[in-house]
Amino acid sequence: MEEVKSVNFIEEIINNDLLEGKTSEIITRFPPEPNGYLHIGHAKSLCINFGIKEKYNGKCNLRYDDTNPSKEDIEYVNSIKEDIKWLGFEWDQELYASDYFDQMYDYAVSLIKKGLAYVCDYSAEQIAATRGDLHTPGQESPSRNRSIEENLKLFEEMKEGKYADGEKVLRAKIDMASPNMNMRDPVIYRILRATHERTGDKWCIYPMYDFAHPLEDAIEGITHSICTLEFEDHRPLYDWVKINCGFTTGYPRQIEFARLGMKRTIMSKRYLKKLVDTGVVSGWSDPRMPTLSGMKERGYPPQAIRAFCEAIGVSKANSEVDVAYLEHFVRDYLNINANRVMVVKDPIKLTILNAEDEEYEIENNPNAEEKTTRKVTFSKNLYIDRDDFAVVPPPKYKRLTVGGTVRLKGSYIIEYVSHVCDEEGKVVEVMCNYIPKTISGQENANMKVKGVIQWVNAKDCVDLVINDYDYLLLDGEGDFDKRITPNSHIVYNNAKGEACLKDAKPYDRFQFMRIGYYSAVKDYGNGKYEFNEITGLKDSYGK
Predict the structure, then answer these.
(1) 0.70 cut: is pTM over it?
(2) 59 in catalytic set
């Protein structure tokens, strides 16, 4: 294989392993627990594992860590597959920890026979209380010196369901005085009566993650088991399980990297589930959620997410990334790939007294590689946004005012004539005249005006619903419940858009000129014309 130029410490390790002939094929895996939806933090791991597969022409397995059936659900299994495909990755094998339950049980029995595991009568609280701390060795359980024969009998009885949940556990027999707390006789099997999605009620004992994970990797022939930094202290246990269960080739090799942290972004499935369960959001795919399915509904391009993950890189040091950095990549992609359209979120009538029906060609996207145009109609009856007219303008106001002029985007310069208010004094209509020959390319086009505003033709515009979003979390630190942003979802039910939006398809993305980037909802069309805000126009990253 041609050597791949390394860009991070993980690839340096892989390159050295290939150079030294330790392996000829690189195999990684992505091992999510199906107890929730994937979020932006998982995207980093996905990009690392599947990125290695692509760079080294290797393999990457999708393996579900389904060892805790009390928290797992087929809904999560299916969502994980959809999210990985959406990001553009393909796995080589779809596997489950439960594929190996019989083998894991046999490996546990082999450890008992070697005198390396024992059945313990301690409760979880007793185990925690006797584990010791960094300065004090742990206390050995009275069960630690049971005979091999008794341990085999008790473990078989655990499997047969003769004991209550939590009544007994199987522990590895390692070193209660180890400076590494994870090596102080960790629990490797527990009793758990819960129907499993794939194995039903066959098992009432399930392996713990630290026992199951190295065995899964070893059985599948994983060469490099890449995980987040909190598992660094678990690596000695990973290697202990692997070696004492008979896998002595040196592989799989665990490598740890720093997980992704982002400001104002929830990176915990437990807290995300709490938002769903308490009704703060509409579900795991709510566009405000940092789940990959939420980002899809929001309109985030998967290409931008992958570019972001590549840019933040791989390191051994934990750090926190500004969420504006992710939005920077989203905006960069959309700036080139999203067509521009005109939309007014809070419309008021604009009557052009001297107008006649016309039609123009307007450029769709000045930054696109392939330049295209669309037809826009103009008539006497238009809509503009309420914010674009002021009877008493604030300082530095550059839109339409009493006695003022403004340019309609892609059309004429107009000048104020009068306006009409309702009984409450709210402006409901503005009357103007257009100034002839002020369209781009005409003789009066260079007339100076302070501002340009968007508009739509009342004759053929489409009625829209627009969803605007704020971050779910307020900036700063503190109690999670007190940091939930109030009113993080604002709905505009009376928006108006260009006629071309009737032909948009689900998930089509647009720049609403002077407003922001928006995506058509997944069930867009057939009379439902609704858009979700993706991100604003202004890039705050680096400021």
Answers:
(1) yes
(2) no
